[in-house]
Each structure stands twice: as structure tokens, then as C-alpha cells.
Amino acid sequence: MAEHIHVPSLPLPGQRAITLTHLVMLRLITGYTFLIVSLLGLFGTDWDIQWHATIGRDRTFTPPHDLILLAIGLNGILALTSILIESWWVRHNHELAERSTDFLGILHSSLGSYFIGFCAVSSAVAFPLDTYWHALYGVDVSLWAPFHTMLYMGASISIIGILYIITSAIHLAESLHRPGLVRLGHAGVIVALALLLSRLTTFIFPSFDVNPGGINLFPVLLCACVALVCAIAVRNVPWPGTATLVILVLLVIYVLVSACVPPLMTWLMQVENQTYLPGTTFARSVVVPLIGQSPWLLLTGLSIDGVVFLSKRAHWSLATRTWAIASAAAVGTAIVAALKLLSLASQTASGGQGSILPFLLALVIAVPGGLLGNWFGTTISKTIETLRS
């Protein structure tokens, strides 16, 4: 697959502009539809995580599993549909070939549609393998089980595909001087990044119990996730306060999930006459409201946006700006992670003595995570820039 980025000739400017506008609308509609499906999958995933943690895994086709399967199926169908529609358009409007990614010279579409289609196939394969894994080894409650990871990464990479689709529409709208469509696209990027951050911060939950050498991995992973997402946001959305907007949308998603999942848990328990696993209660096993999805992260977003504002005012070099954003993400998120570790330490240590140590360690070890996440986010942003066609 290769992305064509050169500008084609304009034999029929008026008709060509109308055709490209239709392409922009198709990709925006496709991108926003994928966002809705991703939110549906997020509900199913968080519901399923809590069901595993508190009830166990009693059968394959539970309502949470059905929601996940529905999201996977819809992603695959939508990806295939968008590819077929754009391929048909290219056959009848050859100038569109310059604005799409071809596959084997037969199919034409946004690169993101191929991403999402591949992830849907990968997730569809992972689901029966996960069922087989449970049949062999019994119930596990680890989110990092092999095929849980395969499913979760498929969903996360799909969101990267959504970013590709919407960003390609933004660049086309900019070339057509359609500011309304550009703003609509940037709003979609913000929502997609918030969904990505929600998935990543939930996926790192098991790291609370991973302490190689006595050092908790949660601060490093949380900083990496936040820095990655915020680096993509500030590089691809030219709005002021972009990082803060991502965190605000994240909190809206958190409120929606927190409002819906507990009643769904109670309802399903009553319907299936289930009881909690020994030694656990729903209140102790809620996965969704992590500290990584708390208002404290607003401090991180504000600090990153402050650095971006200062860098533009003072005309910092790109290298200086990159290091400053990475540092702001690392320090701000390290404080959030440290507060969580302090909370855990105060619950397990009488009087809370010695709790300052994990706080200090979190501030130190989170910096590499922030730098790594910023580098990865910058790299992804550069690949997204290749879609400026």
C-alpha cells in the first residue's frame, strides 16, 4: 500500500471540488460512525472487566461479550463498506485515486479503513482463542492475559485508524477552504484521542501489581499513555487548550461509563442469579474510575497547553518545545500516579508511615515514561502528516 500525496491536475475545478467535498463528507461520516462503535465497544469492555473481576466468567455469550462482538462486527462491516464505496468512486472519478491509498491496484480508501478492517479481523480471531484459553486454563481475571491483550490492542489500534480517516478528511477540507468541515474533523480527533486514552489507562490497571525491583510500573505506563495522546493532540489540532480538551472529553466518557455500568452489573446479576466471587465486592473491584481517569489529569492537560502557549509566544525551537511538552506531561502525570500510590500505601500501611517513598519514586521513574510516550506520539503524528494530500 502506498499513499499518494502529490496534487493532481485540475481539468474541471468546479466538478472536482464537488467530488472532493463528497469524499470529505464520506470520511467524516465514516469516522464519526466508527467513534460511536468504539464507544459501544468501550462500554462492553469495561462492563466485561468488572464482571470478570467480581463474578467470574460463567459462559461465552454474556451481554458484555455480546457488546464487544457487536462492536468488532460493526467495525469490520463499516471498514469493508467504506473501502468498497471509495473503490467504486475511484473507478468513476479517477482524480480521487490521488487522494486515497490503493491496495493491490484494486481497492482504494483511506489508510485508516485498512487499519480498522485488519484490527476487526484480528479481534474476531482473538475472541474464540480467548474462549479456548479459558477452557484450557479456567477463569482468569487478568486483563493482560494473551488474548485479552490481542483484543484490547485491536480496539486501540482501530482508534489510530479513525484518526487517519478523520485527519485525511481535514486535510482535504483545508485544500477546499471548508472551515466548517475542518472544525468538525478536529472535534472528531479530540473525541478519538479521549477514547484512546480511556482504553490505554484502563489497560494499564494490572501494573499496580507489577513491582520489579520494588518499583511500581504504574507511573511509567500512565505517563507514557498520557504523553503519547497529548503529543498527538497538540501536533494535529491547532486549537488552544487541546490537551485539556482531550482530558475533559475523557472525563465525560468516564461519567457516562460510571453512570451506566454499575446499574447494568446489578441488572445482569439479578437476571442470571449470580453472586460475587469469594472475598470480593463490586465496590472494591470497580475498574473504570481509575485515578488515570480523574480530574487530577486536568492539571497535566493545563500544564501541556501552557507549555505550547509559551513556546509559540517565545518562538522556541522544535527540539526545545518537544522536550518541554514531554517534561510537562511527565511531571504532571507523575503527580497523579504518585497520589494513587500514596492512596494505596495509606490503605495497606498502618498510620501511613513510609508512604512518601512511593510518591518520590513515582516522580523519578515517570520521567522516562513521559519521554517515551512523547516520542511515540510525535512519531505517530509525523505519519499522520503524510496524509496531507
Task: Describe the SSE topology.
Elements: E1 2-3, H1 13-54, H2 63-92, E2 101-103, E3 107-109, H3 111-137, H4 146-175, H5 179-203, H6 218-236, H7 242-272, H8 282-285, H9 297-314, H10 318-348, H11 356-385
Antiparallel strand pairs: 1-2, 2-3
Helix pairs in contact: 1-2, 1-4, 1-5, 1-7, 2-3, 3-4, 4-5, 5-6, 5-7, 6-10, 6-11, 7-9, 9-10, 10-11
What does this structure look like?
The protein has a three-stranded antiparallel beta sheet with strand order 1-2-3. It has helices at residues 13-54, 63-92, 111-137, 146-175, 179-203, 218-236, 242-272, 282-285, 297-314, 318-348, 356-385, and strands at 2-3, 101-103, 107-109. It has 389 residues and is mostly helical. It contains eleven helices and three strands. The radius of gyration is 22 Å and the shape is globular. It has one domain. Helix 2 packs antiparallel against helix 3 (111-137), helix 6 runs antiparallel to helix 10 and helix 9 packs antiparallel against helix 10 (318-348).
Radius of gyration: 22 Å
How much helix, percentage-wise, in residues? Answer: over 70%
Segments where pLDDT lies below 50 for 5+ residues? 1-12, 283-289, 350-354
Number of domains: 1
Shape assignment: globular
Distance between the termini: 16 Å
Backbone structural class: mainly alpha
